[in-house]
Amino acid sequence: MQSIYWNENCTVFWHGISMADQAKYKSGFSYVGSTVKATGHAYMYGSRIMRRARDDIYFYNGGLPAGSTIYKWDMVYSYATAHAIPSLPLLINGHRYYFRMLAEADVPDGLFLRLIAYNREDVMVKLQIIRGKSGIFDFPQEASYYTVELVGAGCHEVIFHRIDVQEIQDESEIDQLDFEKMHQENERRRWLAAQVVDRYLRRRE
Questions:
Q1: Taking Cα atoms as reference points, which of 109, 87, 2 lies closest to residue 38?
Q2: Among residues 162, 128, 125, 165, which one has the least CA distance to residue 145?
Q3: Most exposed among 42, 110, 156, 180, judged by the fewest C-beta atoms under 10 Å?
Q4: CA 158, 68, 128 angle in degrees (round to 5)?
Q5: Residue 53: its pLDDT value, please?
Q6: How distant, in Å, are the alpha carbons of 99, 100, 108, 166, 169 from that of 174?
Q7: What global pTM score does this model have?
């Protein structure tokens, strides 16, 4: 299992663009030619965003229009434009994946996920809406990359934790998956990796 977290509100490139372009991107995520050249991630205009922990993001916007993308993740970037690294797991063409969102909104069914797959020419080959907290996504054979969008459906206040992604063969497997156990194992591995890096850096001092 892999997990998707709310990372930065904007890419590093944001700080180097003109004020006119910043104003243009403030209304939310923006594409410069294609999704490969995304620069903004979060719906910034009028929003209050607090990063309380890696898996605890508070978002509030009293004027958020229904259907607006609150946050967007990309699998690939044009580094020259965005100066960022991929924020999504790699998916295998033709394979099936179960997406599970951990988030709360101030209204029932106030959030949904929009998954969009593109081919090598940046042409959309699939668009799928996952309503509720979970759903299945089949990654197309002809797809080269994809994006995930957290979309508001009449909500104004959101607490976002993470999105879990697990490859499955059949829907019957879902009930047998222990997501919390897999998440704890992932966190343990992340902690061990951080310890290895820390020891390496200490030896170099």
A1: 87
A2: 125
A3: 180
A4: 95
A5: 87
A6: 10, 10, 23, 9, 10
A7: 0.79
